[in-house]
Every structure is written in C-alpha cells, then in structure tokens.
Amino acid sequence: MNNNTFDKEKDTAVEYKLHYHNLIETDTAIFGGTFNPIHYGHLRVAEEVRERLGLRSILFIPSSIPPLKTMDVIDAEHRLNMVKLAVSDNPFFDISDIECRRPGVSYTVDTLNILIREHSLSSPLFVLGTDAFLELPLWHKPEDVVKLTDFVVVTRPHYDVSELLGSPFVKKKRPLYENAGISVFELITGKRAIVLRCTNLDISASFIRESIRNGRSIRYLVPESVISYITEHNLYRG
C-alpha cells in the first residue's frame, strides 16, 4: 500500500466519524487483552485504530485472570508493568489497572459496567480481533456485552469481511457503511461493529514466549524496555 492510499483511507475514516458521529460517540477506544507479553502487533493495531478513527486515546486494560486463556499466563502485575513500559512514549496511549485490581476472573461485562458507571464512559468502543469477535457467544454474559459497547473489529488487509456474518450478533448482512478499508455492521442490540483493516504484523505472544524458552532473540518483536523487563525478572523461562 502506498502512502497516498493510506492517507486516503485515513482521511475517509476521520470524515466518516465527523459526518456520522452518531455511530462513533466516544474519543477513547478500549483495548483489553492478556498482553502476555505486549508486542509490536498490539501497539501497531492501537496506533492505526486511533489515527484512522480520529480518536483521542486508546485505553489498554490488561486482564487479571483471563476467562478463556489459562495456560502459560504470568502474574498480572508483570503484564501490567510491561504494558506501562510499552506505551510510556506515546501520549495517545493510556493504561488502566481496573481488571488487575479486581479479584477473580476478568469478565469484560463487569469492566464495561464499571467504566460506564464510575468513569463516565457512556458509549464504549471495544477493540478486538476477528477471532475474538466470532467467539463472543463463548464470553460471560455475551448478550449484555453486546448491549453495552460498540466494537472495532481489526482484520488483516485482505480479510473476507463476509466471514463475520456468521456471528449471531450481526443483525444486517449488508454493511451500513463500506469504503476504503472500513465496513460498519449493525448488531442485534443496535450497537455497531466497525470492521477496520489494519497492517498485518504476523507476531504472536505465544511465539515470543516460545522463543524466550528456546533462547532465541525477540528483538524487534517487542519494545526494548519490555525485553529488559523480561530479562530482569527472568520471565517465560520455565
């Protein structure tokens, strides 16, 4: 993709927000996850979501005890600290320890309710990948989640958006809006799924953990500050 094409997509996305602001009613997107560990794939997605949708900030929320991922997850304190290091040089990235402070399993529905009730985030916008969006029926109280938030569904550049139509939460099989790498679908609750094609950095946390266990370099997969933290605390070695 050349720079002119990317600029056109970015401008179209911001124009979409300005002219159809009833579909994007917040300046902050929530980026939840295990972040085990956080890597450049996460950071690039956050940067593109913020820029192309014209948002003020991205709020990273590391989970304490993820409900669907229980294997090989290190302590929440370490994961939280690594996210803090990774986002520290970006003024548009914020972090919340709301899930790390809450005992028990980290359910998205509980986090959304707290953000709405206590932090005046009346119209949440939740960032997730295509696989996670299609797995929504497996989440805790999924119907409530879909009532509380709009979604930014991040896909690969050439992803077939029609695959998302298999979700039971997508109401209309035709997008409300589609242009320049963005498709917007209405959900059965009246909320929206904004499908955004982002740069595909083929990096996975599981590959990073495996590389560390096998003594291979993870440079250029995660920020140097995170590498130093992993080394200092001897993480992912066992």
Descriptive account of the structure:
- This protein has one domain (3-202): HUPs (Rossmann fold, 3-Layer(aba) Sandwich), CATH 3.40.50.620.
- The longest helix has 17 residues, at 3-19.
- It has nine helices and eight strands.
- The N and C termini lie far apart (41 Å).
- Strands 3-2-1-4-5-8-7-6 form an eight-stranded mixed beta sheet, with helices on both faces.
- It is an alpha/beta fold and 238 residues long.
- Strand 2 (57-62), helix 3 (76-87) and strand 3 form a beta-alpha-beta unit.
Layout: helices, strands, pairs:
Elements (H helix, E strand, L loop, with lengths): L2 H17 L8 E6 L6 H13 L4 E6 L13 H12 L5 E3 L2 H4 L6 H11 L6 E5 H5 L7 H7 L1 E6 L21 E3 L2 E5 L5 E6 L7 H9 L10 H9 L6
Helix pairs in contact: 3-9, 5-7
End-to-end C-alpha gap: 41 Å
- Taken together, the total number of domains comes to 1
Number of strands: 8
Q: What's the architecture in CATH terms? A: 3-Layer(aba) Sandwich
CATH superfamily: HUPs
The number of distinct helices, counting runs of at least 4 residues, comes to 9
- Give the overall shape, derived from the CA principal axes: globular
Q: What would the average pLDDT be, to the nearest integer?
A: 89
The unreliable regions are: 1-6
Class per helix and strand makeup: alpha/beta
Query: Hey, roughly how much beta strand do the residues contain?
Result: 15-25%
Indicate the CATH topology: Rossmann fold
Summarize the main sheet.
8 strands, mixed
User: What fraction, in percent, of the residue positions are helical?
Assistant: 25-40%
Strand order of the largest sheet: 3-2-1-4-5-8-7-6
